[in-house]
């Protein structure tokens, strides 16, 4: 302990560490009525870090070659000590990342935190969601199983519905007419280099914006729940008399992360196979389409939307519109009220939208 | 001029090729609707009177149909040419005579033919002994199983007593084979490396199948005991996998428990800061 | 003050749990990164005797590193590690002088692996070799 104090002292006289701690940790005050939902961002950071570490470990044995990829993954799963654990953590973790991201978004939606002046926070968050979906999609191909191969075929195929340039885009994405070794090469580069770097950078922007605007206070447990930002000048949202980030809220973050870990590890150890249909363990065969190929659960609604419209282009357009609407929500919903129960129209739309998404996903799963 | 018109023709040819190629590419997603719709045998026979159309219906339910073994694979002939489909010059064999049946089937089932010919059944060929179809049926040939040894079939020639004893001797082994097969399949489903186990079981199953045409009870008893020992070895390997799975679940329970404990401790620590 | 004591207790508990968790994470990662021993052990290299005439050498992979077989003048067979004892480069065969030369710093070895010249501190390691029914086996 004394050694640590000395080290801190040593650092302090050089870089004034005390001031940084006072400003960013102990003096960084959060609203008193802050709730557990606010810790989902930290959980997501933790998941991302875990994905990066497990991903780097997998890179040691994975071979990004269409002839060897499947065997290399099978070797990781069966021969390399604890390879199964690291692979399962990575695969289950990707699903968890999407799940927690959706919960994070929902909490922001219900607490009205996306409203001005936090439009950019919402927008960067939305782009992060898209990037996470992209990294999941590209990672899905890498084991080169039947599931990988055909899910990627179906997913890239849907781009073909875009008029005029659709077919070109499909071939550009695949690096050829069909999903093949070239697709693996480019998906691998995207998955391990470009998209992770993009996600890391955007997380930086997301946090920078959060720090500049100040954290929003939840609309619960107070009488005045409307938004007072006028938009005339920059205003940092302070919370005088609030709780310090360190140690108070950091402990809540750690509690949430531990709870998440318990859930995550339970899936990893007891039933990771909810995310692995048996086609995931059969090597890719471009000449044999397995029956009932389905995308991952978070793409099921998109998949079903494409199927229910008579033409793919309409299905694609509807999805595009829905996504654009969601991305631009803070610019469309400009009301001052933030409490969900005082926003009946918003609540109805959100709940119905959510039910529609769940319904389409279930329909997609069973169709 | 001449040169020009030729090149124009060539142009047309290239275009046609392109269109054809495009059509083939377009047609590819719908895979060729299996061999059966292409062969003329079925097209014709399905519409003939009962006597000639029955084999078609029977065959459709057979393991041969399931594996894409069509009429011509046994009966010969040209399945693509309506007029010459049954021309002996095109290799058409027609219906084999009673004594020719084992050789007819044995063209593919080589090992089985050998086993059959060496058995009491095979030695009685042409002396009112049974042929392949006596037990397996014709056209509607299903996957061989011990059910083929039954009182009705066997007692049409001799008493069932000995056949029943043979069946009883084989039943336990068959059940073991099936059970082990299912366990391996379950591990395969979750990505375990079952290659070596599958190969082992395949070899053992083949060894078991060579007994199917043997009617020597003592030999069957000895062999099935040896085969059961082989299966037990595979079962032991599976038991080791079970053990590894149980260990992993224990470690998992500890990890989940530790996480929950950490959550509780963090919660309590948080409570001390008011 | 009661809070203080409680914090210290919880801190110790969390510290212990954290140490256990670190072990639980680092052990699998360490095992994952450790090359599996016994992977290459027990492997032998063999070739037909007639493919190695007098004065010829054969380089091959043995137990994960380079090795070489020499048939000396007079027919005697020697199997050596081809890794130079100086800095680990792979020695080359100099047919004219019937000796091994390391291309890195000019170390020279005889066909028995003995250092003839240059910086190498030790002879090349000898490997067990046997001949049976016209087949040479190393290992």
Topology:
The complex is a heterotrimer of chains A (367), B (274) and C (139).
Chain A: H1 2-15, H2 17-26, E1 29-30, H3 40-61, H4 69-78, H5 83-110, H6 119-141, H7 146-158, H8 166-174, H9 181-213, E2 243-244, H10 245-270, H11 300-308, H12 312-327, H13 329-332, H14 344-366
Antiparallel strand pairs in A: 1-2
Helix pairs in contact in A: 3-5, 3-10, 4-5, 5-6, 5-10, 6-7, 6-9, 11-12, 11-14
Chain B: H1 2-27, H2 40-45, H3 50-60, H4 63-66, H5 71-75, H6 101-106, H7 110-118, H8 120-123, H9 132-136, H10 151-154, H11 161-189, H12 195-209, H13 217-271
Helix pairs in contact in B: 11-12, 11-13, 12-13
Chain C: H1 2-33, E1 45-48, E2 57-62, E3 65-71, E4 77-81, E5 92-94, E6 99-101, E7 108-109, E8 115-117, E9 126-127, E10 129-132, E11 135-138
Antiparallel strand pairs in C: 1-11, 2-3, 3-4, 4-9, 5-6, 6-7, 7-8, 10-11
Structure description:
The complex is a heterotrimer of chains A (367), B (274) and C (139). Chain A has helices spanning 2-15, 17-26, 40-61, 69-78, 83-110, 119-141, 146-158, 166-174, 181-213, 245-270, 300-308, 312-327, 329-332, 344-366; strands at 29-30, 243-244. With 367 residues, chain A is an all-alpha fold. Chain A has a domain at 38-214 and 243-295: Cytochrome Bc1 Complex, Chain C, CATH 1.20.810. Chain A has a two-stranded antiparallel ribbon with strand order 1-2. The longest helix of chain A is centred in the middle third of the chain and has 33 residues, at 181-213. The termini of chain A are far apart. By secondary structure, chain B is an all-alpha fold. Chain B has three domains: 34-95, no CATH class; 98-142, no CATH class; 159-274, no CATH class. Chain B is built from 13 helices and no strands. Chain B has helices spanning 2-27, 40-45, 50-60, 63-66, 71-75, 101-106, 110-118, 120-123, 132-136, 151-154, 161-189, 195-209, 217-271. In chain B, helix 11 (161-189) runs antiparallel to helix 12, helix 11 (161-189) packs parallel to helix 13 and helix 12 (195-209) packs antiparallel against helix 13 (217-271). The mean pLDDT of chain C is 90. Chain C is α+β, with helices and mostly antiparallel strands and 139 residues long. The radius of gyration of chain C is 26 Å and the shape is elongated. Chain C has one helix and eleven strands. The interface between A and B is medium-sized, with 27 and 23 residues. Chain C: Its cofactor is [2Fe-2S] cluster. Chain C: The chain crosses the membrane at residues 9-30. Chain C: InterPro entries: Rieske_2Fe-2S, Rieske_2Fe-2S_sf, Rieske_Fe-S_prot, Rieske_Fe-S_prot_C, TAT_signal.
